[in-house]
Write a structure and sequence with these properties.
- Residues 1-56 form the Protein kinase domain.
- It comes from Armillaria ostoyae (Armillaria root rot fungus).
- This is Protein kinase domain-containing protein.
- InterPro entries: Kinase-like_dom_sf, Prot_kinase_dom.
- By secondary structure, this protein is mainly α.
- It has a domain at 9-46.
- It has helices at residues 9-12, 15-34.
Length: 56
């Protein structure tokens, strides 16, 4: 997996935005688990956001 440089979600955004991202990630992870798929290292510092142009 490639390393992405840049701020984490918690460094770039505040409060309700961070919580909304966490909720979205939780939902996505639940969908993965429902399909018997597992990701081993999902935590706040590993959540990166891409801009609208698809750049990371």
């Amino acid at each position: 997996m490639e390393f992405l440089r840049g701020p984490t979600v918690a460094q770039k955004y505040e409060g309700s935005v961070v919580e909304a991202v966490r909720a979205a990630v939780r939902g996505a992870v639940q969908m993965l688990h429902n399909q018997s798929l597992v990701h081993g290292d999902i935590r706040t510092p590993n959540i990166m956001i891409v801009d609208g142009a698809g750049r990371r």
